[in-house]
Amino acid sequence: MTNEEILSVTVLKSWKLVISRFDKVLSELSDEQLQRQVAPGKNRVFYLVGHLIVTHDWIRRISRIRTECLSILFRQLSFEEHGPRSIAG
Prior knowledge:
CATH superfamily: dinb family like domain
CATH architecture: Up-down Bundle
Oligomer: single chain
Low-confidence stretches: none
């Protein structure tokens, strides 16, 4: 496994661990607790959770786009270096 692959696996495992812990905390909160402001005059908990969900989805979308772009780039580089037979199959 390359250093990049090890880093990717570590980051994904860490991300999933944080999400599972956050999910556990949220599941223990009542609806009333989710409606409370985090500080006087500040946003409510459920509003902040919504932003975290959007950020999580955005990161997933960006990583998928990055993966697709890298795949296309590697196929193009392989084609330029080795010709059309290198990408067959």
